[in-house]
Amino acid sequence: MSQAALQWLSLVAVVWLQFINGTNTNFPAYSSELKQLLSISQLQLNNLAFASDAGKILGCLAGLASDHLPFSVVLIVGSVLGFIGYGVQFLYVSDIISSLSYWQVFCLSVLAGNSICWINTVCYIVVLRNFPAYRQVAAGISTSYIGLSAKFFTDIVDAICTKHSSQIRRAKVYLLLNTVLPLAVCVIAVPMARVIDAGKERKKESGFIVMFVITIATGIYSVISSLGSDPSRLWPVINVIIMIVLVVLAPLAIPLGESLVGEWWLRKEELRVHDFPIKELGSVEDGKIEEEDDVSVEVCQEVGAKEEIGLKSMVMRLDFWIYFFIYFLGATIGLVFFNNLGQISESRGCSRTSSLVSLSSAFGFFGRLTPSLLDYFFSRNKYMVSRPASLVALMAPISGAFFILVNPSNLCLYISTAIIGACTGAIASTAVSLTSDLFGATNFGVNHNVLVANIPLGSFLFGFFASRLYHKEGHGGGGRCIGMQCYRQTFIVWGLLSLIGTFLSIVLYVRTRKFYFQRFQAAAARRLTADVQPQWIINQPSGCSRRRSFTYVCSSLQ
Question: Which residues, in sequence order, are bridge partners of residue 545?
């Protein structure tokens, strides 16, 4: 298999890893059952959601490990941590382990949350190094699939459990999937998820167009299947099969096609026995030549980052702290909203929590995909979108969605869930490239894990605030609160905080506008240079006739 095909195969492996790595996103689907089983309060349940996010505080360990250990070791370590964290919880819920304290479950949740960082770190680095000229596109496509994790896990649970199955049984299946699937996929992906040195980067537009088609088709199907009701018992099984075909099998067509094209081209070159490449004629009859490498057009590399700096220098930059709090007041609040989605739907009298989880997952998928899709097509039309400007456009809808939630109708709940899911996913996807833009790709593993350390901090603060109001409005009634008053004040505060985040996004845009303008000018200059046709000045050897691809066939050799 050619090196180019192996590059595409690495992207497919990353897609598989991201597809099953959102194990913490299905927590709302079984959080109410866990609360009942452990006999804990809403505040303690919020702390368990925080524990899963708290694992990201130690995410910098994964970044350091990826700098010194093979990616295969990093993947296996991450999957084993998740296997232990979720596996012991599964044994407890299944009554195989008779006793497990609340704090033991808390520590297991931290371990499980940290496992996600190890797998994500490998995925990010492999994509950024294998596709440097298509950084935003490749990162956006791959990270979008983590948004489908909750949807896929819910489909499997629906296929295994009947409508009459108890909620405790469904919780067991969720925990079992969280335990087994990441480990199995990591073992399969280990040989493929690696950095491939393919030499000079060539155009890959056709491959990414095919990948976009597959990805968009997957997202459309996910949204449609999330909104519809199950017409028969076999429908969840059909959902699982279709998702496996779209996510696991369909992307393999790209490396397979690349491999076949590479072999065809090699055979074609071998048949041209009497063709002399132009570089071999550079000194024929003292002729002069200006040549291209392999005749094909090279893809121009992106302009470098604003600055290549490490962790110590990064935390001294004002841009970092503005960026940190934008994420904190945007994507992090969105994630806290999803952690509490089970209790939010319960308090509003909405019984279809699984549908809400699937809906947020599907729209989160499209949100993660959209930045790379726009970046790709804008660049083809000679436009460039400032990524801080994208943050401005994404933060404002999140704020509006929280104010919409003050309305008691279930329709507003569904609309707001979709908006927050899409915008949160888009911010998470944009952040991967923005971190690299502002602080460089050399220390990306550590730098980005430090940025996302705001997630556990926000999970604790925002979640604690929400749970305190929930408990207050519930008047201590068995730890449950029913009614719009349970979260009304929370939604208003979260909406106002998101507005502050929108203002910070504008500030970051103003501060980085000059950098992105210079980047646009450099890209425009490269395109102008690439459009200029080279001058070919060759003294044609006697007895030789000109052919395509700047080669000659000489009759004296025939």
Answer: 553
Q: Identify which has the larger pLDDT, 397 or 52.
A: 397
Measured CA to CA, the distance from residue 491 to residue 381 in angstroms comes to 40
Q: Which two tokens stand for residue 275?
A: 């063709």
Look at residues 33, 59, 4, 28 and name the one whose alpha carbon lies nearest to residue 420.
28
Largest separation between any pair of C-alpha atoms in the chain: 100
546: DSSP letter: E
Q: How far is CA 94 from the centre of its chain?
A: 32
**Given pLDDT bands bounded at 50, 70 and 90, which one contains residue 540?**
very low
In three-state secondary structure terms, 276 is strand
Residue 96 near residue 182 (C-beta atoms within 8 A): no
Helix axis angle for 135-144 and 353-380, nearest 10°, is: 170
pTM (2 d.p.): 0.72
Dihedral sign, Cα of residue 463, residue 469, residue 472, residue 477: negative
- b/e code 374-405 from CB counts within 10 Å (16+ = b): bbbeebeeeeebbbbbbbbebbbbbbebbbbb
Spatial CB neighbours of 32, under 8 Å, sequence gap ≥ 6 = 167, 342, 343, 346, 353
